């Protein structure tokens, strides 16, 4: 048997195993993701209340969406929430990761404690934050009051409900911290040593070594964080149901309401495509801006 | 081929974007159903501390079970029941099924249970798949939509074949939710009016007389202001809750003044008309000026602990079904009376849920035999329902559940004299009507817009929604 034929037998075997191992995911994706995605395209041109056969309505759902003020209101709320959650989440968790990366005693304990909120159930998180954000009895307003500041109405206020939800969104950011920690530990020590030899202080080392080396990780967290924030609705449903006065009616919640409260499946499918477009547009903008600030070691 | 960091990042982001229309892990975690009271019920001897088997057996044997001319199946059939119940009631229902099967050995029962807030979604999806249970729980606000879409089977033919099924024992004025074109599609599992509850301890402390049948809404406003006191955790509210867009807004708050949220046909918004407008304005003043009813911010925390039930409200407007919970608590003494009178008299909604039969059922006779017994006076007494639709079951059930008999008598009087479905939204758009109007009213409650602007905006935004109420 020649060396070439042995290689080709091995290659075929490897290919077979590859297909065998990847097939469960592929079957699952086609049945449970690709199928519904394609069905949603067709549904968006139909009227369907689940109880009658779907009826073709052409572009009526899209026309309705464009003329629906609550849809635009939900887009505005979604973008506000997404921006707030990402800016605060990414920067705050980065600072936490820097602290947790310091060689301190009980480092492992601190890291565990910071990760704990990520494993708390969503409902418990929602109930906890309803109390933390309560205008009269909440922890945040109590702290503000102790320094003479009258806290806002948070979830009971139209202006402060989104900022309140943004604060809550940082709570479960343990996964982001883990990703940051992995990135921080991957920065070669030699770079810091070289910077020190050049006389760089801690700020210069942070700004000229840590941040550029971490920029791909920050970018990853920004992009995935935005996608997650744009889809968020479950905790908002539990905490505010979109109120007060539709102030927290985000697009995900608006879709949920049309699909599973009004059973207006055609319009809900149309709104879902609007969400997809929103995610793609926001992600594309982020990629185009990334060229200006994300530094890659190897190009 | 090895990928560099940029390519790996791009791949990771693309994968994340692909999943954009799905749930994130965090959302899946949050959406996971909370298992409250999940339990295993022994089908051969269903029992619990609340519902001992021996007591159930004794009660079952003491009751007379009604007959029907609908014949029992000649061979085994299986009927599926879709109910929403809590873990405690589930045991009682299992006991009912146990004894029912002894009376009807050819009828097997497959019982499904879903939490109330997931129930409609689950069964709408099953309806789409053509697999509805034979007998289904129905909230009063859902039934007309299901009738309009021909999902339900009318029950009149079965009632006609069952002379013992005493329809006069069920308040006829509360059946409108389940009727269309002269046919009846649902039979109530429970039905009750709304009442004015009061905290006797707070009234005693304030030295004021308890509310009674002579009260007018003016008297309620005046007393609510007097009863309001304290602040923060010590705050006592005069009355809770205040009116908001809801299916029974007209019947509880507006009709005594000659106003309505929507007209009878649910085709026109009437809330901005003077009679209704004045009522809404008075309540808004009670909230914003007198602070005698909880604000949105205050309700936010109190939502999980109702202000009245926690002893923080003097007056409470709610359904008679809360009497069971109030009877069990010992923190304060309470009483109830009829809702106050207005210039146009006294009104109260009669609301409840029902059992319906799916049009797709293959075992309608067996399904009826089950419904007949479940909804008979004996069925109500066996299940110890706190607010039975059958009026003959009130007294026995009240005694068994520890509800004062005089309170049960009050409910029976209201049901007999005036409680009705008039003014309670029920047509297909009712949920959308409420969801459209509520955020506008919340802005008024926050003091962002005036009552007139809020009501005008409600008219403008709710009117287009009402086209969905047109049933062919």
UniProtKB/TrEMBL annotation, chain A:
It comes from the Bacteria. It is a multi-pass membrane protein. SUPFAM superfamilies: MetI-like (SSF161098). The keyword Transmembrane applies. GO terms for cellular component: plasma membrane. It holds the Pfam family BPD_transp_1. It is found in: Cell membrane. InterPro entries: ABC_transporter_permease, MetI-like, MetI-like_sf. One of its GO terms (biological process) is transmembrane transport. The keyword Transcription does not apply. Residues 75-286 form the ABC transmembrane type-1 domain. Keywords: Cell membrane, Membrane, Transmembrane, Transmembrane helix, Transport. The chain crosses the membrane at residues 20-46, 79-100, 112-132, 160-182, 217-239, 259-285. Belongs to the binding-protein-dependent transport system permease family. This is Sugar ABC transporter permease.
Automatic annotation (TrEMBL), chain B:
Pfam families: SBP_bac_1 (PF01547). InterPro entries: Bact_solute-bd_prot1 (IPR050490), SBP (IPR006059), TAT_signal (IPR006311). It comes from the Bacteria. PROSITE patterns: PROKAR_LIPOPROTEIN, TAT. Residues 28-52 are annotated as: Disordered. PANTHER family: ABC TRANSPORTER SUBSTRATE-BINDING PROTEIN (PTHR43649:SF30), ARABINOSE-BINDING PROTEIN-RELATED (PTHR43649). This is Sugar ABC transporter substrate-binding protein. It comes from Nonomuraea turkmeniaca. The lineage of its organism: Bacteria, Bacillati, Actinomycetota, Actinomycetes, Streptosporangiales.
């Amino acid at each position: 048997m020649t060396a070439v034929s042995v290689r080709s037998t091995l290659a075929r075997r490897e290919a077979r195993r590859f297909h065998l191992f990847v097939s469960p995911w592929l079957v699952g994706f086609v049945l449970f993701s690709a199928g519904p995605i394609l069905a949603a395209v067709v549904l968006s041109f139909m009227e369907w209340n689940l109880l009658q056969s779907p009826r073709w309505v052409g572009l009526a759902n899209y026309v309705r969406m464009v003329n629906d003020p609550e849809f635009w209101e939900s887009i505005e709320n979604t973008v506000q929430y997404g921006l707030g959650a990402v800016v605060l989440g990414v920067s705050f968790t980065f600072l936490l990761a820097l602290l947790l990366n310091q060689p301190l005693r009980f480092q492992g304990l601190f890291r565990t404690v910071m990760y704990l909120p990520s494993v708390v159930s969503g409902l418990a998180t929602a109930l906890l934050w309803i109390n933390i954000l309560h205008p009269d009895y909440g922890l945040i307003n109590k702290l503000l009051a102790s320094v003479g500041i009258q806290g806002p109405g948070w979830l009971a206020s139209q202006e402060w409900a989104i900022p309140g939800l943004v604060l809550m969104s940082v709570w479960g950011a343990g996964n982001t911290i883990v990703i940051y920690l992995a990135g921080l530990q991957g920065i070669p020590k030699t770079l810091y040593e070289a910077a020190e030899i050049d006389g760089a202080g801690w700020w210069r080392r942070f700004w000229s070594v840590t941040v550029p080396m971490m920029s791909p990780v920050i970018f990853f967290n920004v992009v995935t964080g935005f996608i997650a924030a744009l889809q968020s609705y479950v905790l908002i449903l539990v905490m505010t149901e979109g109120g007060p006065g539709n102030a927290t009616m985000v697009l995900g919640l608006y879709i949920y309401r049309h699909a599973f409260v009004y059973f207006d499946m055609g319009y809900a499918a149309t709104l879902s495509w609007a969400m997809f477009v929103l995610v793609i547009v926001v992600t594309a903008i982020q990629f185009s801006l990334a060229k200006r600030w994300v530094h890659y070691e190897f190009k | 081929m090895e990928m560099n960091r940029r390519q790996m990042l791009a791949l990771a982001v693309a994968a994340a974007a692909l999943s954009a229309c799905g749930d994130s892990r965090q959302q899946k975690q949050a959406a996971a159903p909370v298992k409250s009271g999940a339990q295993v019920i022994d089908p051969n001897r269903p029992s619990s501390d609340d519902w001992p088997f021996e007591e159930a057996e004794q009660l079952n044997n003491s009751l007379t079970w009604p007959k029907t001319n609908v014949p029992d199946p000649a061979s085994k059939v299986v009927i599926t029941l879709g109910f929403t119940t809590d873990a405690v009631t589930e045991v009682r229902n299992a006991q009912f099924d146990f004894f029912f099967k002894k009376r009807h050995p050819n009828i097997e029962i497959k019982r499904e249970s879903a939490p109330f807030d997931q129930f409609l979604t689950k069964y709408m999806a099953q309806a789409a798949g053509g697999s509805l249970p034979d007998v289904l729980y129905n909230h009063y606000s859902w039934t007309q939509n299901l009738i309009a879409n021909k999902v339900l089977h009318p029950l009149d033919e079965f009632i006609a074949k069952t002379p013992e099924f005493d329809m006069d024992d069920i308040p006829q004025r509360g059946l409108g939710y389940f009727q269309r074109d002269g046919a009846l599609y649902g039979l109530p599992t429970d039905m009750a009016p709304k009442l004015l509850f009061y905290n006797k301890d707070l009234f005693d402390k304030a030295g004021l007389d308890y509310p009674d049948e002579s009260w007018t809404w003016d008297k309620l406003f005046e007393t609510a202001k007097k009863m309001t006191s304290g602040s923060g955790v010590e705050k006592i509210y005069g009355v809770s809750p205040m009116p908001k867009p809801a299916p029974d807004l007209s019947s509880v708050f507006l009709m005594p003044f000659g106003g309505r949220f929507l007209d009878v046909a649910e085709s026109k918004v009437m809330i901005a008309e003077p009679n209704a407008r004045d009522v809404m304005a008075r309540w808004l003043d009670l909230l914003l000026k007198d602070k005698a009813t909880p604000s949105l911010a205050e309700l936010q925390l109190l939502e999980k602990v109702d202000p009245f039930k926690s002893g923080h409200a003097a007056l409470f407007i709610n359904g008679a079904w809360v009497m069971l919970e109030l009877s069990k608590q010992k923190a304060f003494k309470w009483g109830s009376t009829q809702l106050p009178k207005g210039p146009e008299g006294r009104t109260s909604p009669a609301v409840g849920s029902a059992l319906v039969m799916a049009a797709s059922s293959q075992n309608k006779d067996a399904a009826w035999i089950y419904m007949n017994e479940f909804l008979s006076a004996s069925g109500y007494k066996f299940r110890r329902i706190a607010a039975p639709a059958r009026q003959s079951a009130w007294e026995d059930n009240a005694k068994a559940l520890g509800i004062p008999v005089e309170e049960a008598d009050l409910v029976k009087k209201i049901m007999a004299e005036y409680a009705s479905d008039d003014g309670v939204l029920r047509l297909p758009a009712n949920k959308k009507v409420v969801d459209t109007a509520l955020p506008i009213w919340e802005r008024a409650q926050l003091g962002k817009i005036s009552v007139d602007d809020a009501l005008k905006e409600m008219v403008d935004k709710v009117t287009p929604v009402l086209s969905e109420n047109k049933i062919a």
